[in-house]
Amino acid sequence: MTGRIGPGLVGEVMIPIRGGVEAFYAHPSDPREEITVGTIVVVVEYHPPRTVYVAHALG
Q1: What is the number of domains present in the chain?
Q2: Is 2 helix (H, G, I), strand (E, B) or coil?
Q3: Rounded CA separation 19/11 (Å)
Q4: Is 45 a member of any domain?
Q5: Predicted pLDDT of residue 59
Q6: Residue 30: enclosing H or E segment and its boundaries?
């Protein structure tokens, strides 16, 4: 995470794609959850062109 996300907040994640890294807008998969900068996340849903829903990678 490069930007904090949580209820009512849109953050940013950097995702490795095709040998590079691209920025995507990020929302928490659980709308009540807050995820801080530096957290490793997993993408659980993708909405073109640049929006993802994420969750903590370790549960």
Answers
A1: 1
A2: coil
A3: 23
A4: no
A5: 57
A6: none
- The CA-CA-CA angle for residues 3, 9, 13, to 5°, reads 30
Average pLDDT in the 41-59 region? 93
Task: Of 9, 49, 48, give the one whose Cα is nearest residue 27.
Answer: 9
Distance CA 43, CA 54 (A): 5
Q: Give Cα 33 to chain centroid, integer Å.
A: 12
pTM over 0.90: no
Whether 26 is covered by a domain: the verdict is yes
26: containing domain: 1-33
CA 11/CA 36 separation, integer angstroms: 9
User: What mean pLDDT do residues 23-44 have?
Assistant: 95
